[in-house]
Amino acid sequence: MPKKTIKIFDRFLLPVVLPGLLIFLWEYLAHKGVIRSTILPAPSVISATFYDMVVSGELWGHLKTSLWRVFQGFALGSSLGLIAGLLISASPRVERSLLLVTGILRPIPIIAWVPVLILWMGIDEASKVTVISIGTFWPVLLNVIHGIRSTDRKHIEVATMLGKNPSSILIHVILPSALPSIFTGLRVGIGIAWMSVIGAELIAASQGLGYLIAYARELSQADVMLVGVACIGFTGLLIDILLQCIEKRLLYWNVNLSGKG
Amino acid sequence: MTAAGKEMLRIRNVSKRFELDSGSVLALDNVSMDVKPGEFISIVGSSGCGKSTLLRLVMGLESCTSGNIELGETNISKPSAERGMVFQESRLLPWKTVAENIAFGIPKTNPKKEHNAIVKEHVELVDLHGFEQALPYQLSGGMQQRVSIARALVGRPNILLLDEPFGALDALTRIQMQLEILRIWETERKTMILVTHDIDEAIFLGDRVIVMSARPGSIRKVIHINLPRPRDRSSTEFMNYRRDIFQEFFGEQQKPFVFEI
After folding, report:
1. pLDDT at position B257, please?
2. Which of A194, A198, A216, A222 is nearest to A208 (CA)?
3. pLDDT tens across B170-180, in order?
4. Does residue A40 fall inside a structural domain?
5. B191 - beta bridge partners?
């Protein structure tokens, strides 16, 4: 039994020990007046604000707006990344013709696109969704290409030997083999998408978590700002956990993932 | 169900040259042999003697530089369901179950509704009943190789090509698999060509043992094994064959296993 207790401790308690201690220290210092509450309110104050904003539905409104934008941008960006990745992997000529374009576009920070896209598409939803899809596109693209390239040639040879046509080889061999890598791309992509939406909303928006933070700054509401920041962090974590669960389900055969073997 | 291989395999003056960056290498030099339907041929040779290349040419995975290989009246130029191949590594698709991996070998000309029956029949043939839903990583090396054999047989080939199929297995499993392949050969009566570097294995299984020499790969000697099956590995006749083949490799001076006074 003690072994099991240690296991439970390692798994569930260990990750919360350090944050718990830090919050405790923070609360203590705030009460002693070491930390100025206009700059960094105590955790208890932030929690109270959080509670109020949840009850009033204000937080949920902003969160919903941001999530919907991320969903649209992520769906668009990752599908385009997947399609482009397939095309580039399928034909060296496509790859060669896109080499310079991708080389120049890829290093551009996502935030640099925001003013440009606002000019082109206006200040409403379209520009934000586009920013997010650009952010999602690159990691998905690179990981799709990497995944397809690392398909075991011996597996492809077996499929050829068994008389499979190219589309069947793609469905039965190449895509399943690339799936772990594609998933890595999607996970990185959604992380960037979530950061991009906040960035875009900080610059120009009338709804969303980024807007909530920017507006609270103008009103010097440090507690509201921090509620927004914390909400971004927790939502990002939840999205990642969700994606990990889907990954485990889908890649049941992957020995590296499940730790079996 | 006995589908005897009805056609003669003719290998005529086959040479194979590989073009490498550092120059060209003659892997096979003027190799000729006939394989009768239902015959079991063992090919032994040191590594790099082109024995695997010969098998790949018979499969149609590579093309001859000169000479030709015919099965009956048709010239072999690409893989076909009438020839099945088993490699040293099982090459199973890790995302497919045992049953799905075996079904992957069924040619698409086969009606869909027969698939289950065909898979079931071959699961029984390789003695894997109860493991249909297992994933490759859950199986031992020997079991993985059984699945690989079943996958090569579901297309009902006339010829089964075995490229060092037991080379990666431990000694005990290897002997068990040799008995297994013998049993399959006796029930299915297919032509089998086994490439190996294990002299015992070659004598134990083959009607004829083809000894190959290296660089360039060519046939050095053909030895008919006139022993009834199942063969006793410790019998005098077996030992004599063994000595003959050892002499082919090591000459009169060096006899690694025989001490004469």
Report:
1. 58
2. A198
3. 888 888 889 98
4. no
5. B159
Contacts of A155 in chain B (CB under 8 A): 91, 93
Burial grade of A112 (CB within 10 A; 0-12, 13-18, 19 or more): exposed
What element of type H or E holds B243? Answer: helix B236-250
Residues B116 and B189 in one domain: no
Q: Per the omega criterion (within 30 degrees of 0), is the bond before B230 cis?
A: yes
Q: Which residues contact A37 (CB under 8 A, 6 or more apart)?
A: A30, A45, A222
Task: Find chain A residues with C-beta within 8 A of B155's C-beta.
Answer: 162-163
Chain B positions touching chain A (beta carbons under 8 Å): 59, 61, 79-81, 85, 87, 89, 91, 93-96, 104-105, 107-108, 135-137, 151, 155
Of the ranges A252-261, B31-40, B246-255, the best mean pLDDT one = B31-40
HSE, CB side, 13 Å, CA atoms: give it for residue B23. 3
Residues B198 and B78 in one domain: yes
- The CATH number of residue B212's host domain is 3.40.50.300
Which CA distances in Å does A37 have to A42, A44, A54, A243? 7, 11, 22, 37
Query: What is the domain extent for residue A119?
Result: 55-258
- Gap between the Cα atoms of A179 and A184, Å rounded: 9
Nearest CA among A88, A82, A159 for reference residue B95: A159
Q: How many domains does chain A have?
A: 1
Q: Across the beta sheet with B83-86, what order do the strands follow? A: B83-86, B159-163, B191-196, B40-44, B208-213, B218-224
Determine the Cα angle at B193 with ends B130 and B237, to 5°. Answer: 100
Which site among B76, B83, B91 would you substitute to test the A interface, given the most A Cβ atoms closer than 10 Å to its Cβ?
B91
Residue listed under structure tokens 């041929």: B41
Q: Which of B107, B133, B111 is nearest to B120 (CA)?
A: B133
CATH code assigned at A241: 1.10.3720.10
State the ipTM, two decimals. Answer: 0.84
What single string gives the DSSP state of each residue in A142-185? HHHHHHHHTS-HHHHHHHHHTT--HHHHIIIIIHHHHHHHHHHH
- Give Cβ neighbours of residue A247 (< 8 Å, ≥ 6 apart): A183, A187, A257
Across A21-30, average pLDDT? 91
